Amino acid sequence: MNETTLPSQARYTFGGDEHLFVEISEEMSLPAFFKGMAICKALRERAVPGVTEICPANAAYLVRFDPDIVAPEELLSILVELESGLGADDMSMETRIIEIPVLYNDPWTHETLMRFRERHQDPGSTDIEYAARINRFDSVDDFITAHASAPWFVSMVGFVAGLPFLYQMVDRPRQIEVPKYLSPRTDTPKQTLGYGGCFSCVYSVRGAGGYQMFGVTPAPIFDPAQKLSYFKDLMVFFQPGDIVKWKPIDRAEYDRQIAQVEAGDYTLQIKPVSFSLKDFMADPDGYNQELLKVLHGN
Questions:
Q1: CA pair distance 199, 103, nearest whole angstrom
Q2: For domain 11-87, which architecture applies?
Q3: Cα–Cα distance for residue pair 4/101, rounded to 1 Å
Q4: For the chain, where do the domains classified as CATH 3.30.1360.40 start and end?
Q5: Alpha carbons 265 and 228: distance in angstroms, whole number
Q6: 160 Cβ partners below 8 Å, 6+ apart?
Q7: pTM, to two decimals
Q8: CA–CA dist 293, 245 (Å, integer)
Q9: Could you give the angle at which helices 30-46 and 72-84 cross, rounded to 10 degrees?
Q10: Is the CB of residue 33 less than 8 Å from the CB of residue 58?
Q11: Which of 53, 270, 248, 238 is nearest to 155 (CA)?
Q12: N or C: which end of the chain has fewer CB within 10 A?
């Protein structure tokens, strides 16, 4: 498989009596992600009796089922059929593009990362300085520009409630890669913008973590009380397939947006958009520019 082709047949593994795990590919890629999403969508539309939960992930998915209603081998046969029937037209989706503000190099993640330097590959620098250096950027500012300039796909939501994993929408040689901490921290501020492997993430709540810390967003992404308007339907904001554009902001703008969050009138820039994997693969940079025009309404 390469970045422009779909993976060959998936690997199917039963997990106990009620779960079927399907690994699309051992390697993360947009084609692998789209293939998994397309099968999950087709399975949902077929409404197979006995299927109780469908959980898409980065390059895999998990199906939970009731074996008293649908036999394991029958479900397996349905999934194999759905996979073999996929075509290029299935590699598109109606989704949304969202702008998420980020205060890079903020004081709260800086204080936290300094408390855990003994667990880091490079105790003499900050996380973002380390990431910039090993990805061969001349400066942290250049690294932030690379991180924030192109959109990202939400390829999975989980690990803790509401935490999105995001995959950078650029040619693979340009993708940022950073290892996780040597051993996990016991603390990470909520709404930290993190990075591990090829994935960015946003820590939805305060807690332990091992991803590098680059900044914080003022935007809540998990709210059981559903106070803000964009939590109207769900307490978890992100969904697999969302497209995210980071927007660097300064401390004054961060404080202004936090005041809006506390007042309950905070909102995000969100626009509906159609996405075609085929068209994106043909010209990633040109396609991204069209996506940003949709986001900004021009």
A1: 19
A2: 2-Layer Sandwich (3.30)
A3: 31
A4: 11-87
A5: 7
A6: 203, 204, 205, 207
A7: 0.91
A8: 12
A9: 120
A10: yes
A11: 238
A12: C
Residue that the structure tokens 């649908």 belong to: 70
**How crowded is residue 83: how many other Cβ atoms within 10 Å of its Cβ?**
20
The DSSP secondary-structure symbol of 231 reads G
DSSP state of 282: H
Q: For every one of its 298 residues, what pLDDT tens digit does the chain have, with 9 covering 90 and above?
A: 455 566 678 999 999 999 999 999 988 888 999 999 999 999 999 999 999 999 999 999 999 999 999 999 999 999 999 999 987 777 899 999 999 999 999 999 999 999 999 999 999 999 999 999 999 999 999 999 999 999 999 999 988 899 999 999 999 899 999 999 999 999 999 999 999 999 999 999 999 999 999 999 999 999 999 999 999 999 999 999 999 999 999 999 999 999 999 999 999 999 999 999 999 999 999 999 999 999 998 7
Contact between 196 and 163 (Cβ < 8 Å): no
Structure tokens at 10: 């998936």
